[in-house]
């Protein structure tokens, strides 16, 4: 595996999912595969699950880990080409990426969108320039528009916990106080639409995701109807793609409640976390037996380890 | 040892002290005990000694270490239950603790008090919620009200350097420019009152600690009298417990000087550090031969390692 | 090697350069030399290359690495002696250094100058107090006035890529938007003047470096003339030493361009990075085949590893 920045970097999803579930049984079976290999984990934004689970996964494989808060601990990065750098940025991404590539065998990178300029965000500039200039495999730790480690985790989790051969999986928009990226729902849609599931997205009008990631996916604007017979409810807020970065509604009627969960076929409740309680989802759902959010977060480690294993095998 | 958040988590203090002094002779004797075990060191506040010594201790045992500045590098944490999270906090401590517990075999946590709401601080909410929700052993790296790794270090240091079978140990309040927590004196009193020492606390009126931690301890309001015949002077500032979080006096007459040390039986000078020179203690005391503050700080490593050894043995 | 804070700590430059180039061929040949040794990497300022390359080098040798942002993650440090610490500083450097020395076998430290008080900066107070109080070998990660790991790298890189037995090396001042330290040019001059090269410095009048570091070095105020026949052009901005910390000119005529490089003998272009594109150097130079800045940055790892190897051998 050269890079892992989207679904398209995966040759064989089925194999990768099986590999992750094998790793889960014995995370230390390959504890020398990464000896004398270094992964740099670069953060331009906050991270809890991704940071800890990827560090853990790399250490399970014997890798050395360098975590680095690129902007805070290093230099402010310029991404525009051909620019006269007489402003606040001290270092161009061309040099930053290439230099980090000198020290790291794999580079993980987290870079959120600004949510003001859709064209810029959807070019996914920072991660793509790292791919272009670093000369090393790039592992997305969530880019401006995609979060493939989360989506691989989600596919694994559904595979692990499903009780039907073809479960119904519903991605439901939910309200939030702040404007959030589309990375998780974009990725979730891209991955889930290729998995052995009946996949439905429900959201208020105006919250349509880029059709680059939702082609062929059923959109159901009636949340109650979408929940009927569902086996997995995946809640997530996102800001509008069409009216880019805007909050069109905070309608609390879209919050995931016990009442709504009662419409499903005893669905498991999923969320990528962090989640705002009683805004996105009611306490009674999150604290119920059917909530698998912690189990799901735990699987982040094995998803990351499966991907790193593939990368290391190719070295 | 399940958790290490107070004196009450210790079964056998004598054994733990002896174990730390054994470890000090050969810190690498157990360098494979922690293989394939991960400790997360979570900081909500600054730390030098605790951060470095605990990381060192864990690495001496072969553990993987993940350090994480929870609020700066992760998400702002909500601790109230049942709340509608429409404010500045992005993640509830229920999820944060449980998720970190998925990746870490031991969780170290530092969380200082706000010093405005005594009831809230003394509930020691953050560390207790980690105990409740993380599902993993919790190691206090100083909580709102206790600092047991420091106190274990202090017991070890007195044991190591005492020249009498039952030395006189004096905890002396000293002035400071800022309002400081009661965690160190609370813990010191809790631990020292169970050690084989004559223990006295001296402080200005109004600085009485919570009697939860000072039961049976002799309080002497006359600092000079308290110092008479002392073998160890342990200086520390704290803010008032009674008038919670307030500075009642900055009286420089309470600073530890050569003159005051002359009242003792050539006492060793101790402080947990960091210490403000010529406010808490005069240069000539801190720089004297009887000052053991650096030696004491060095023992932090072995105290932490003794505790981690017990935790790992139980896994 | 006791410390590595300036050229004067090197016994045998030739040996150190050869050692680094040997290490480059097989960085893992000595991967157990540093077992059970800990290096603390302390940062008071931003760092990318130094942070990552030194961490990598230490890990190549089997060392444990503790990175620590001293002021942000620890306590604000006081450096003045005899002071009453009733201000914003919480901990004196005497204690900080000595305590860190309890946990670390080697201490790396980065501390930039304030560029307002020349006498203070050139006393190189912070690193010298660490040397005085830590009781451990100190590795400069760039001090107020010197950056020896960079200069060792630069000597290695010239040695590795030269095509003549005695190449001409030109250090050229270049414009910049901000006032920068003199550490890199000071060190470069100190080291390069002892190497087997013809060494010339070119800069506008008023930018003379401290003659402590430029004794016997040819200064050529005409940049074009300096470039004639050059084999290596090393660009770097610095603020004035004479009018301390001031920017005397931002004259764009001093920017390194293709036209200027055409005056040389197909010189390689070097810079320590980070570099501001089209301010210090034109894109077409930095992106040309003769630009070796990434290769040079890559050598930082082997320079650091050669130094750490010497330090570890002496333990």
Please give a structural write-up.
Three copies of one chain form a homotrimer. Chain A has 315 residues and is an alpha/beta fold. The termini of chain A are close together. The first copy, chain A, has helices at 13-25, 49-60, 70-73, 93-103, 118-122, 125-133, 148-161, 183-192, 211-214, 223-227, 258-261, 283-286, 293-313; strands at 38-43, 64-68, 77-78, 91-92, 106-110, 138-140, 168-173, 198-202, 218-219, 232-236, 268-270. In chain A, helix 7 (148-161) crosses helix 13 (293-313). In chain A, the strands form three sheets. Chain A has a five-stranded parallel sheet with strand order 9-8-7-10-11. Chain A binds chain B through residues 27-28, 31, 43, 46-49, 51-53, 55-56, 59-60, 69, 177, 273-279, 283, 287, 293-294, 297-298, 300-301, and chain B through 36, 38, 40, 64, 66, 68, 70, 73-75, 78, 82-87, 89-92, 94-96, 98-100, 102-104.
Write the layout of secondary structure elements.
The structure is a homotrimer of 315-residue chains.
Chain A: H1 13-25, E1 38-43, H2 49-60, E2 64-68, H3 70-73, E3 77-78, E4 91-92, H4 93-103, E5 106-110, H5 118-122, H6 125-133, E6 138-140, H7 148-161, E7 168-173, H8 183-192, E8 198-202, H9 211-214, E9 218-219, H10 223-227, E10 232-236, H11 258-261, E11 268-270, H12 283-286, H13 293-313
Parallel strand pairs in A: 1-2, 1-5, 3-4, 5-6, 7-8, 7-10, 8-9, 10-11
Helix pairs in contact in A: 1-7, 1-13, 2-13, 4-6, 7-8, 7-13
């Amino acid at each position: 595996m050269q890079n892992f920045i989207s679904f398209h970097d995966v040759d064989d999803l089925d194999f990768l999912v099986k590999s992750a579930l094998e790793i889960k049984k014995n995370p230390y079976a390959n504890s020398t595969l990464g000896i004398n290999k270094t992964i740099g984990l670069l953060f331009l934004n906050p991270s809890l699950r991704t940071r800890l689970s990827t560090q853990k996964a790399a250490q399970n494989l014997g890798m050395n880990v360098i975590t680095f808060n690129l902007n805070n601990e290093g230099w402010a990065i310029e991404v525009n080409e051909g620019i006269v750098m007489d402003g606040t940025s001290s270092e161009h991404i061309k040099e930053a990426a290439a230099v980090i590539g000198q020290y790291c065998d794999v580079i993980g990178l987290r870079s959120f969108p600004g949510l003001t300029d859709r064209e810029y965000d959807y070019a996914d500039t920072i991660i793509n320039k790292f791919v272009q200039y670093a000369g090393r495999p790039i592992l997305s730790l969530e880019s401006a528009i995609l979060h493939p480690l989360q989506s691989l985790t989600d596919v694994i989790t559904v595979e692990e916990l499903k009780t039907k051969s073809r479960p119904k999986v519903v991605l439901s928009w939910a309200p939030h106080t702040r404007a959030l990226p589309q990375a998780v729902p974009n990725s979730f849609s891209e991955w889930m639409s290729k998995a052995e599931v009946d996949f439905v997205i429900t959201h208020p009008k105006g919250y349509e995701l880029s059709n680059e990631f939702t082609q062929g996916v059923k959109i159901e604007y009636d949340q109650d109807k979408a929940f009927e017979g569902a086996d997995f409810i995946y809640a997530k807020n996102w800001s509008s793609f069409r009216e880019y970065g805007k909050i069109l509604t905070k309608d609390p009627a879209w919050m995931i409640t016990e009442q709504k969960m009662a419409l499903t076929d005893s669905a498991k409740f999923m969320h990528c976390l962090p989640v705002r309680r009683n805004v996105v989802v009611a306490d009674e759902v999150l604290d119920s037996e059917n909530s698998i959010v912690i189990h799901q977060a735990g699987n982040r480690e094995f998803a990351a380890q499966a991907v790193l294993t593939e990368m290391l095998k190719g070295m």
